Amino acid sequence: MNSDEREQLKQKLQADLLEIRSSIDTLEEATKPIAPDDAIGRLTRMDAINTKSINEEHLRNAKVKRGQLERAIKQVDDPDFGFCLECEESIPFKRLQLMPESRLCVKCKAQASR
Question: Which of the following CATH numbers is that of domain 3-113: 1.20.120.910, 2.170.270.10, 1.10.3720.10, 3.40.640.10?
């Protein structure tokens, strides 16, 4: 990976991190406890509880993604960044553009998912 590609990834990582932090703020607001007599419009309390549990799952996933992005930002300047942890081959730049937190190439990720 050349220095221009590395700089593009840094910018992408920083933008993604800002976006995920904003999502986390929104989700934390949406996962606050629901009062026993709380009903929003026509939603019942059970609907509100169900929505809250879905938002809690999204919040957990967002926090994991934030950690991955923060780790990638710290490592983007390392010479080993962009190489698969399994096969040690270079991860294609297009994959890193889409998922800059990727630590495995597509082939190794597919094998790990089986």
Answer: 1.20.120.910
